[in-house]
Amino acid sequence: MSLESERPKLENGQKIFDPTGNVYEIIKKLGEGRCAVVYEALDVTNKRHIALKVYNSGLRYEGAFQREITVLETLQSLNKKVCAVKLYGTFQTIHHHYVILELLECNLRQILFKNNKQGFSLWGVQKFAKDIFSGLAVLHSQRMVHADLKPANIHWCPQHGCYKLLDFGLSFHLTEEDIHQVQSMGYQAPEVYVWNRFKQQKLCNGCEDIGSCFQETSDHIKGKSFRKSSLKKGKTKSTDNNQEESKVTYLKPGLAIDVWSVGCLLMEITTGRKFFKDNDFYHKLTPFESNIHNMIDDQLAEVWDHYQRDGLEVAACFELLKDLIHKCFDMNPSQRLSSEAALHHPFLQLQLEPLLTDCLILTSKVLLLMNIADPTNGETTHQDKDVSELLEECNRRGPVLQTFLSLNGSLAGSVLINYKYFQDCQRAVHKLRNYVINGRNVIAAFYPLEMFEKLNRV
Question: What Gene Ontology cellular component terms go with this record (predicted)?
Answer without folding.
Answer: neuronal ribonucleoprotein granule; nucleus
